[in-house]
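so i finally got all the pieces together for this one. its two components total, 677 residues if u count the protein bits. some of the lines might not be protein, just check the labels. i wanna see the whole assembly predicted at once instead of chain by chain like last time, that was a mess tbh
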Amino acid sequence: MLEVEGLTKTFPGGSQPVKAVDNVSLKVKDGQFVSIIGKSGSGKSTLLSLLGALDKPDSGSVKVDGQDISVLSQADLAKYRSRKIGFVFQSYNLIPNLNALENVMLAMELAKELSKPERKERARQLLNQVGVEGDRQQRKPGKLSGGEQQRVAIARAIANKPKLILADEPTGNLDSQTGKMIFDLLHNLAKSENTTILVVTHDLLIAGKTESTFKLVDGKLTKEN
Amino acid sequence: MNVINRGVRNAFRNSVRTLAITVIIGLSLGLALAMLVAHQAVGRKIDSVQADVGNTITISPAGFRGFTGTGNPLTTAQLAFINKLPQVTATEESLSDRLTSSDTNLKSGISLGRLGRRFLSNSGSFSGNSNFNFANFTPPIRVIGTTAPTDLANTTGGGTFKLVSGTVFSSGSDANVALVGSSIASKNNLKVGSTFTAYSSTITVQGIFSSGNTFSNNIIIFPLATEQRISNSPNELTGAIVYVSSASDVNSVTSLITKQLGSAADVTNSAQQNQNYISSLNGIQTVSLYSLIGAAIAAAIIILLAMIMIVRERRREIGVLKAIGATNLKVTTQFMVEAVTLTVLGGIVGVIIGVFAGSPITNTLVSSANSTSSSTIAGFGVRRRGGFFGGGGVIQRHGGFFSRNISNIHAVVGWDVLIYGIIAAVLIAIIASFAVSFIISKIRPAEVMRVE
């Protein structure tokens, strides 16, 4: 269960501070696939940063499985991010000089829960699961297509069996056909792994396929359906 | 793949940049090591000079040097206080004289020659006597009574004592014995056990020595007490050399002796006479030390700037690492390993440069300093060039030193230099990494959300 209560984040602006996230509250049950839509600059990425413990809110709380992440220390936050959260980014954000297999293994290495052979085996299985197979697993991101890179990013995101996957415009850099494949992949994962997936997008077609959709306008969140 | 492997691999991520950083750091560290080599070589030379000639003090009667000048002899009583000085480890005393044909039945081992004639004429001894027959003139024979019979460098002004036959008398002997130079022995058919007359006393040849030079081979060496007795010069001395335990005490002991003896003696030390030589070596050492420090700082700045550039370039990647669970320590360690790898590579290049450049750079530094010091050294050389009768008789501890070339410095690259190079490289990398870690810690994980 993801519970957000009164979340607010303000950035210093030119003449006056800008409230990127303004008193946002929401609840998402385990295994739900929800989307947040909004225009560019509406605060979607800031909200995602706060939910993923990448940034600290000015006020409010974020609870994952009942644990308030806004009170965690830096070390605990790092642990939280590695074990409880999986990120999928619009620009994939794979480490360029590691191959696909190593990128997935890196996430597991930081979680420190598996031995190296176990990490390698699980990374191989996950990449097979998302459709990056054979010698493509040994390729560095620069030698993979955008869709393949996003699949590797998804494999990395789910490597540590997180409770919550946060996806920031996961299909934003992909053509519509590949974008649909990636969306289906995330959707299937939510069902098979009982993982909560929260997708930020401005693609209304994708948002329409999720179980629940929120709309963010000038930092304020409203429920669409 | 662990954090160390990732750090090492990252160092080779961009081959052109890796090459550039390695070469620049290599040049800096190479220069630093070359300067270290020069610094060590010059330091060894200074130590060697100070150990070799820097701990002795020469005492001679005021105004008297060899058989030139005027003045009164010193006495053993006057110099007695010297042995009581705590810094003094030993003294060698001597009394020099010349045996004329009326003093001895021996003939000089060397002929008068043009130089001898010129000296005699210039000395005023025969001025106004244009009919003086130089052909019949027998040059006097130089004798020295000494407590250090085998120390030719001190007693005669040069050469290495080599006993050809017989034995050497003890330093405290008072017997009517002598060590005879090979030229005199040959000229007078002397052998061990032969006798000759000196100062109306009969002297037995106890040994025959060779010094490697004609000048010293024409000397007769007596025990000091014997020479004082048979020449009717009780307790008189014409020179002494004082050995001080440490070169650093030479000047203070020289001052003490000068103060005590006052105007009766000329007191000099090799440290004073070598001051210009040492000064120019110290100058080289200072230049090399500053260059060493400067080059090491340059290497540190280069790796620091390179790492800042790399970290700024990878802000997003650092954000990714933090977003997926890496701690500041883990990210910093990875970049530290990368910095160490780059710097060690530079260090290896630097060591190679240092090995090949150390000697030429040392020689360049020394030769540039040589041009400023050579005139001073030549000046001493002229002063030492004594006349036929003038070179010996006084204890001279400076023999041979000034003939050394200042550039005779050997730059050696030892294992210590190589180890210093690698240690310096690692330390520089770690220091630079700590500075960079501050920047890394300031990079927010949310950086990953930034859209470029």
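The radius of gyration of chain A is 17 Å.
The mean pLDDT of chain A is 88.
anyway lmk what u think
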